[in-house]
Amino acid sequence: MKKVTKAVIPAAGLGTRVLPATKAMPKEMLPIVDKPAIQYIVEEAVQSGITDILIITNRGKDLIEDHFDRVPELEAKLSGSMEKNEVLEEVIGISRLANIYFLRQKETKGLGHAVSCARSFIGDEPFAVLYGDDVIIGDDPACGQLIRAYEEFGKGVLGVKQVAPEAISKYSSLAVTPIRDNLFHCTDMVEKPTPEQVLSLYSILGRCVLTPDIFDVLDQTAPGAGGEIQLTDAMRTLARTTGMVAVEFTGKRYDMGNKLGILEACVEVGLSHPVIGEDFRQYLKNLAKTL
Protein backbone atom coordinates (compact mmCIF):
# COMPACT_ATOMS: atom_id res chain seq x y z
CA MET A 1 0.00 0.00 0.00
CA LYS A 2 1.37 3.39 -1.01
CA LYS A 3 2.09 5.98 1.67
CA VAL A 4 0.16 9.23 1.81
CA THR A 5 2.67 11.93 0.91
CA LYS A 6 0.50 14.26 -1.19
CA ALA A 7 -2.18 16.70 -0.12
CA VAL A 8 -4.67 18.99 -1.82
CA ILE A 9 -5.83 22.23 -0.19
CA PRO A 10 -8.89 23.68 -1.96
CA ALA A 11 -8.63 27.46 -1.51
CA ALA A 12 -10.73 28.81 -4.35
CA GLY A 13 -13.80 29.91 -2.40
CA LEU A 14 -14.95 33.52 -2.55
CA GLY A 15 -15.21 34.07 1.21
CA THR A 16 -18.66 35.64 0.97
CA ARG A 17 -19.45 34.93 4.64
CA VAL A 18 -16.70 37.28 5.80
CA LEU A 19 -17.13 40.17 3.39
CA PRO A 20 -15.98 42.94 3.13
CA ALA A 21 -12.66 41.67 4.59
CA THR A 22 -12.33 39.19 1.72
CA LYS A 23 -13.20 41.62 -1.07
CA ALA A 24 -9.52 42.01 -1.95
CA MET A 25 -7.78 39.53 0.39
CA PRO A 26 -8.27 35.75 0.30
CA LYS A 27 -9.92 34.44 3.45
CA GLU A 28 -7.12 31.88 3.67
CA MET A 29 -4.74 34.79 4.31
CA LEU A 30 -6.72 36.16 7.27
CA PRO A 31 -4.29 36.16 10.21
CA ILE A 32 -4.58 34.14 13.39
CA VAL A 33 -2.37 36.34 15.57
CA ASP A 34 0.80 36.41 13.42
CA LYS A 35 0.29 33.69 10.79
CA PRO A 36 -2.28 33.43 8.00
CA ALA A 37 -4.82 30.64 8.31
CA ILE A 38 -3.46 28.68 5.36
CA GLN A 39 0.00 28.45 6.94
CA TYR A 40 -1.50 26.58 9.90
CA ILE A 41 -3.09 24.15 7.44
CA VAL A 42 0.15 23.63 5.49
CA GLU A 43 2.09 23.11 8.73
CA GLU A 44 -0.44 20.50 9.86
CA ALA A 45 0.03 18.63 6.59
CA VAL A 46 3.83 18.73 6.90
CA GLN A 47 3.68 17.53 10.51
CA SER A 48 1.58 14.60 9.23
CA GLY A 49 4.27 13.45 6.80
CA ILE A 50 3.05 15.23 3.67
CA THR A 51 5.85 16.32 1.33
CA ASP A 52 3.96 17.60 -1.74
CA ILE A 53 1.01 20.00 -1.54
CA LEU A 54 -1.23 21.34 -4.29
CA ILE A 55 -3.18 24.47 -3.38
CA ILE A 56 -6.20 25.06 -5.61
CA THR A 57 -6.79 28.79 -6.05
CA ASN A 58 -8.58 31.08 -8.46
CA ARG A 59 -8.38 34.62 -9.77
CA GLY A 60 -7.35 37.17 -7.14
CA LYS A 61 -5.52 34.80 -4.80
CA ASP A 62 -1.93 35.54 -5.76
CA LEU A 63 -1.23 36.59 -2.16
CA ILE A 64 -1.31 32.93 -1.15
CA GLU A 65 1.39 32.04 -3.66
CA ASP A 66 3.46 35.06 -2.62
CA HIS A 67 3.30 34.02 1.03
CA PHE A 68 5.03 30.69 0.35
CA ASP A 69 7.66 32.26 -1.92
CA ARG A 70 11.03 33.80 -1.04
CA VAL A 71 11.24 37.60 -0.59
CA PRO A 72 14.87 38.61 -1.23
CA GLU A 73 14.34 42.30 -0.39
CA LEU A 74 12.76 41.51 2.98
CA GLU A 75 15.34 38.84 3.75
CA ALA A 76 18.19 41.26 2.95
CA LYS A 77 16.68 43.83 5.31
CA LEU A 78 16.28 41.31 8.11
CA SER A 79 19.76 39.82 7.63
CA GLY A 80 21.32 43.19 8.42
CA SER A 81 20.11 43.03 12.02
CA MET A 82 21.32 40.57 14.64
CA GLU A 83 18.05 41.12 16.51
CA LYS A 84 16.05 39.90 13.52
CA ASN A 85 17.82 36.58 12.92
CA GLU A 86 14.99 34.55 14.42
CA VAL A 87 12.42 36.37 12.27
CA LEU A 88 14.60 35.87 9.20
CA GLU A 89 14.77 32.11 9.77
CA GLU A 90 11.01 31.99 10.23
CA VAL A 91 10.37 33.93 7.01
CA ILE A 92 12.73 31.73 4.98
CA GLY A 93 11.32 28.61 6.64
CA ILE A 94 7.85 29.30 5.21
CA SER A 95 9.19 28.73 1.69
CA ARG A 96 10.79 25.44 2.75
CA LEU A 97 7.86 23.79 4.50
CA ALA A 98 7.12 21.42 1.60
CA ASN A 99 7.03 21.20 -2.19
CA ILE A 100 4.08 23.53 -2.74
CA TYR A 101 2.36 23.84 -6.11
CA PHE A 102 -0.54 26.01 -7.25
CA LEU A 103 -3.34 25.43 -9.73
CA ARG A 104 -6.21 27.74 -10.63
CA GLN A 105 -9.77 26.47 -10.61
CA LYS A 106 -10.99 28.46 -13.58
CA GLU A 107 -14.66 28.09 -12.67
CA THR A 108 -16.03 27.97 -9.13
CA LYS A 109 -18.04 24.78 -9.45
CA GLY A 110 -17.72 23.43 -5.93
CA LEU A 111 -15.38 21.44 -3.72
CA GLY A 112 -15.75 18.27 -5.78
CA HIS A 113 -14.72 20.09 -8.95
CA ALA A 114 -11.75 21.66 -7.15
CA VAL A 115 -10.51 18.24 -6.04
CA SER A 116 -10.99 16.82 -9.55
CA CYS A 117 -8.60 19.51 -10.82
CA ALA A 118 -5.83 17.74 -8.85
CA ARG A 119 -6.06 14.50 -10.85
CA SER A 120 -2.78 14.81 -12.76
CA PHE A 121 -0.95 15.94 -9.60
CA ILE A 122 -2.16 12.94 -7.60
CA GLY A 123 -1.82 10.23 -10.25
CA ASP A 124 -2.50 6.81 -8.74
CA GLU A 125 -1.60 7.69 -5.14
CA PRO A 126 -3.75 8.14 -2.04
CA PHE A 127 -3.91 11.74 -0.86
CA ALA A 128 -5.15 14.00 1.90
CA VAL A 129 -7.60 16.86 1.44
CA LEU A 130 -7.40 19.73 3.90
CA TYR A 131 -10.21 22.23 3.43
CA GLY A 132 -8.96 25.80 3.17
CA ASP A 133 -11.70 27.08 5.51
CA ASP A 134 -10.78 24.82 8.41
CA VAL A 135 -7.86 25.35 10.77
CA ILE A 136 -7.47 22.50 13.27
CA ILE A 137 -5.06 23.01 16.15
CA GLY A 138 -4.03 20.26 18.56
CA ASP A 139 -1.11 18.25 19.89
CA ASP A 140 -1.67 15.46 17.35
CA PRO A 141 -2.16 16.77 13.79
CA ALA A 142 -5.65 15.88 12.57
CA CYS A 143 -4.38 14.96 9.11
CA GLY A 144 -1.91 12.54 10.67
CA GLN A 145 -4.69 10.85 12.63
CA LEU A 146 -6.54 10.17 9.37
CA ILE A 147 -3.41 8.91 7.63
CA ARG A 148 -2.84 6.37 10.42
CA ALA A 149 -6.39 5.11 9.94
CA TYR A 150 -5.82 4.79 6.19
CA GLU A 151 -2.64 2.79 6.81
CA GLU A 152 -4.64 0.42 9.04
CA PHE A 153 -7.77 -0.05 6.94
CA GLY A 154 -6.71 0.83 3.38
CA LYS A 155 -9.92 2.76 2.73
CA GLY A 156 -10.85 6.40 2.36
CA VAL A 157 -10.96 8.19 5.70
CA LEU A 158 -13.14 11.05 6.91
CA GLY A 159 -12.31 13.50 9.68
CA VAL A 160 -15.49 13.97 11.70
CA LYS A 161 -16.96 15.68 14.74
CA GLN A 162 -20.45 15.79 16.16
CA VAL A 163 -22.30 19.05 15.47
CA ALA A 164 -25.34 20.52 17.18
CA PRO A 165 -28.76 19.27 15.95
CA GLU A 166 -29.73 22.79 14.88
CA ALA A 167 -26.51 23.11 12.81
CA ILE A 168 -26.44 19.73 11.04
CA SER A 169 -28.36 21.09 8.02
CA LYS A 170 -25.38 23.35 7.23
CA TYR A 171 -22.96 20.41 7.11
CA SER A 172 -23.05 16.75 6.10
CA SER A 173 -24.61 13.90 8.03
CA LEU A 174 -23.02 10.43 8.16
CA ALA A 175 -24.30 6.93 8.80
CA VAL A 176 -21.70 5.42 11.15
CA THR A 177 -21.19 2.31 13.27
CA PRO A 178 -18.43 2.03 15.90
CA ILE A 179 -15.18 0.17 15.31
CA ARG A 180 -13.33 1.14 18.48
CA ASP A 181 -12.45 4.27 20.41
CA ASN A 182 -12.81 7.20 17.98
CA LEU A 183 -13.02 5.06 14.82
CA PHE A 184 -16.21 4.27 12.89
CA HIS A 185 -17.35 2.55 9.72
CA CYS A 186 -19.17 4.95 7.40
CA THR A 187 -21.69 3.50 4.96
CA ASP A 188 -23.66 6.54 3.81
CA MET A 189 -23.75 10.34 3.98
CA VAL A 190 -25.80 13.28 2.79
CA GLU A 191 -24.75 16.88 2.19
CA LYS A 192 -26.80 19.64 3.87
CA PRO A 193 -29.57 17.26 4.97
CA THR A 194 -33.18 18.20 5.61
CA PRO A 195 -34.48 17.08 9.04
CA GLU A 196 -35.84 13.89 7.47
CA GLN A 197 -32.45 13.06 5.89
CA VAL A 198 -30.29 13.31 9.02
CA LEU A 199 -28.36 10.06 9.50
CA SER A 200 -26.45 11.11 12.63
CA LEU A 201 -24.91 14.23 14.12
CA TYR A 202 -21.47 13.20 12.87
CA SER A 203 -20.29 15.47 10.08
CA ILE A 204 -17.15 15.78 7.94
CA LEU A 205 -15.22 18.79 9.22
CA GLY A 206 -12.38 19.83 7.00
CA ARG A 207 -10.24 16.72 6.52
CA CYS A 208 -10.28 13.49 4.54
CA VAL A 209 -7.90 10.98 2.99
CA LEU A 210 -8.99 9.64 -0.37
CA THR A 211 -7.95 6.94 -2.80
CA PRO A 212 -7.42 7.90 -6.47
CA ASP A 213 -10.60 6.14 -7.58
CA ILE A 214 -12.45 9.21 -6.29
CA PHE A 215 -11.60 10.96 -9.57
CA ASP A 216 -13.62 8.52 -11.70
CA VAL A 217 -16.51 8.92 -9.28
CA LEU A 218 -16.27 12.73 -9.46
CA ASP A 219 -16.44 12.51 -13.26
CA GLN A 220 -19.86 10.88 -12.89
CA THR A 221 -21.13 13.10 -10.07
CA ALA A 222 -23.91 15.51 -11.02
CA PRO A 223 -24.22 18.96 -9.42
CA GLY A 224 -25.81 18.74 -5.99
CA ALA A 225 -26.48 21.22 -3.17
CA GLY A 226 -26.08 24.81 -4.38
CA GLY A 227 -25.79 23.63 -7.99
CA GLU A 228 -22.15 22.66 -7.32
CA ILE A 229 -20.27 19.38 -7.66
CA GLN A 230 -20.12 18.26 -4.05
CA LEU A 231 -17.21 16.15 -2.84
CA THR A 232 -19.57 14.66 -0.27
CA ASP A 233 -21.78 13.26 -3.05
CA ALA A 234 -18.77 11.48 -4.59
CA MET A 235 -17.60 10.15 -1.23
CA ARG A 236 -21.15 8.91 -0.64
CA THR A 237 -20.70 6.58 -3.59
CA LEU A 238 -17.51 5.20 -2.03
CA ALA A 239 -19.16 4.85 1.38
CA ARG A 240 -22.05 2.89 -0.11
CA THR A 241 -19.80 0.57 -2.14
CA THR A 242 -16.35 -0.04 -0.65
CA GLY A 243 -17.13 1.70 2.62
CA MET A 244 -15.10 4.40 4.37
CA VAL A 245 -13.66 4.96 7.82
CA ALA A 246 -14.49 7.96 10.01
CA VAL A 247 -12.11 9.32 12.62
CA GLU A 248 -13.43 11.61 15.35
CA PHE A 249 -10.20 13.57 15.42
CA THR A 250 -8.76 15.36 18.41
CA GLY A 251 -7.93 19.07 18.21
CA LYS A 252 -9.98 22.27 18.03
CA ARG A 253 -11.44 23.18 14.65
CA TYR A 254 -11.90 26.81 13.69
CA ASP A 255 -14.15 27.80 10.78
CA MET A 256 -12.18 30.56 9.06
CA GLY A 257 -15.04 31.24 6.68
CA ASN A 258 -17.14 32.42 9.62
CA LYS A 259 -16.72 35.71 11.48
CA LEU A 260 -17.20 34.15 14.91
CA GLY A 261 -14.81 31.32 14.05
CA ILE A 262 -12.13 33.84 13.09
CA LEU A 263 -12.53 35.68 16.39
CA GLU A 264 -12.45 32.44 18.38
CA ALA A 265 -9.22 31.40 16.63
CA CYS A 266 -7.52 34.73 17.28
CA VAL A 267 -8.50 34.79 20.95
CA GLU A 268 -7.68 31.17 21.79
CA VAL A 269 -4.42 31.04 19.84
CA GLY A 270 -3.51 34.45 21.23
CA LEU A 271 -3.93 33.19 24.79
CA SER A 272 -1.42 30.39 24.17
CA HIS A 273 1.05 32.50 22.19
CA PRO A 274 4.55 32.27 23.75
CA VAL A 275 5.27 36.00 23.34
CA ILE A 276 1.99 37.83 23.89
CA GLY A 277 -0.11 35.17 25.64
CA GLU A 278 0.21 36.40 29.24
CA ASP A 279 -0.21 40.07 28.37
CA PHE A 280 -3.26 39.23 26.26
CA ARG A 281 -4.75 37.16 29.08
CA GLN A 282 -4.35 40.09 31.48
CA TYR A 283 -5.91 42.41 28.93
CA LEU A 284 -8.97 40.18 28.61
CA LYS A 285 -9.33 39.94 32.40
CA ASN A 286 -9.23 43.72 32.72
CA LEU A 287 -11.63 44.12 29.80
CA ALA A 288 -14.10 41.66 31.38
CA LYS A 289 -14.27 43.83 34.51
CA THR A 290 -15.60 46.72 32.45
CA LEU A 291 -18.31 44.81 30.59
Put the structure in a nutshell.
With 291 residues, the chain is α/β, with parallel strands linked by helices. It contains 11 helices and 13 strands.
Write the SSE topology:
Blueprint: E1 6-10, E2 31-32, E3 35-36, H1 37-47, E4 52-57, H2 62-67, H3 72-79, H4 85-94, E5 99-104, H5 111-116, H6 119-122, E6 127-130, E7 134-137, H7 142-153, E8 157-162, E9 172-180, E10 183-191, E11 202-210, H8 214-219, H9 231-241, E12 244-248, E13 252-255, H10 259-271, H11 277-290
Mean pLDDT equals 92
Query: How would a crystallographer describe the biggest sheet?
Result: 9 strands, mixed
How much of the sequence is in beta strands? Answer: 15-25%
Shape: globular
The number of helices is 11
- The computed structural class is alpha/beta
| Residues in helices, as a percent range | 25-40%
Explained architecture:
By secondary structure, the protein is of the alpha/beta class. Helix content is 35%, strand content 24%. Strands 5-4-1-6-11-8-12-10-9 form a nine-stranded mixed beta sheet. It has a two-stranded antiparallel sheet with strand order 2-3. It has a two-stranded antiparallel sheet with strand order 7-13. A hairpin with a 2-residue loop joins β9 (172-180) and β10 (183-191). The longest helix has 14 residues, at 277-290. The chain is globular and about 60 Å long. The protein starts with 5 loop residues before the first strand and ends with a helix.
